[in-house]
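RETRY 2/3 - previous attempt timed out on the joint model. Re-submitting the same 556-residue input unchanged.
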Amino acid sequence: MEPQQPSHHRQTVALPDPATLKRLALSDSGFVFDPVSGNSFTANGSGLSILRLLQGGNTLDQVVASLGAEFEVTPSLAERDVIEFISQLRSAFK
Amino acid sequence: MNARKPWIKPVLTAHKPGGMNKFGPARPQLHQAAFDGAALEPLLAQFGSPLFVVSEKRLRENARQLRRAFSTRWPKVRHGWSYKTHGMGAVCNALHQEGAWAEVVSELEYRKARALGVPGSRIIFNGPWKPDAILEQAMAEGAAIHLDHLDELYAAEAIARRLGRKVPVGLRLNFDTGYSEPWSRFGFNLETGAAMDAVRRIGASEWLQLNGLHSHIGTFVLDVRAYAQQARIMAGFMDAAEREIDCRIDYLDIGGGFASRNALQGIYLPPDQVVPGFDQYAEAITEALTEATRARSGQGKPLPVLVLETGRAVVDDAEVLLTRVVGGKHLPDGRRAAILDAGVNLLFTAYWYNHDVRPLRANAGMAEETVLFGPLCMNIDQLRASVMLPPLQVGEALCISPVGAYNNTQWLQFIHARPAVVMIMQDGRIETIRTAESLASLSGPECLPAELQTPFPEPSAR
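RETRY 2/3 succeeded.
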């Protein structure tokens, strides 16, 4: 497994506002409900894990490390996928 | 021990109302690991990606089905293989071995057919430009020449005079069937009388003999009534021409245009529900021809040979394109995009078809609306605007089908070298039928003038 090196550029990734994410209702089956907009979504397993980690106020490094413990994924692939997922979250939850 | 779960890219799908319809709300998760019995992933590993894969067995079966559909309904049937649809030697020769003539539309295609070993007497020569030299060769070799316009008629007459003998020729006709968009740019028009003028002009010629009629009503024609009407009109014109001048029409060539099982953009229903089979086309055409030639049969005149130039419907589903995902992103509108190593440079028909796209492996995860982009540095390089696909990793292989018609003749060498084409032979062997291009394929024909051989000369040489 690759070493978990924190990289300075990770700090520049704009995480969604934890307060916005905290309002979301998440079910274990992946159902996501936003009470402010009324919109609902389905997240898959990895998406749900990321949402929960971000709701808990984790940094990107912490999210990537936790994903590495839960899933068979390299830190670089996890980081790449989380960065892309975060941009989806920013569009979906405002 | 805490086993880690497999990683599937994170997905968040918005729930949208109104997505249901009576044809079924969800596309089943499909994958395609093999084609004509050959596992596809090992082919990619051996030949590289992207890769075209042709099935010899499927190709031959399609040609046999076409022949069977028509020859069980009409006494004399001939299939001319359309080189412009797929002109690769292995494909052409497989079909020639099935009995198909060559149907060519240019000097290059004529020469290709001859180089493959097709005698001139089994070549149908169409197209709006047949340069004098090749027209003369074709006439001398006994090819079926279909005259497209008056200038060609006069050129053919001059050549026949030079050859010193009367040469048989066919006339290309165009007319309105009432069921399909009229194609008026090729051949002589019936409604204006131009076609009958050409018949009379041939009748007056010492050197030309009219022996056939040809027309091609369009492409991807889904309404079989268009062909029935075409057959009636051509049979009627055959009788009229034979009354008008001293000639015997030996064949009626109804061209091509039968649809393949591909999803044309803008058509709502899936191909399986809208594309007629060979039997449906054959039934409509031969029924109309039988009716229209009843009087002729009564007079003891021979029935014309029915010539088919079916290309697309014979080769389309006999070939697939394999490609790999090289990158992914989410577009600002929320859609996921995958970048593939094959684009419109290889899949020209993506401009008008929604090709079927399936991962090679059974892929876990929710299907998501996905845009498929090719590798070109061009905004129009898009293979599918919207297709439901599971999460795609870099390196994931996809199978795109059907791709047999027109892609290997209209593909572009733009930015990337064209990939290899392999054929799954009838016995299961894999043969390369076209090697992958390289820098040498691009630079080979180029010539560099001596003073331009060095890109950056020494400063003193400037």
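The domain at 34-53+318-438 of chain B is CATH 2.40.37.10 (Lyase, Ornithine Decarboxylase; Chain A, domain 1). Closing ticket.
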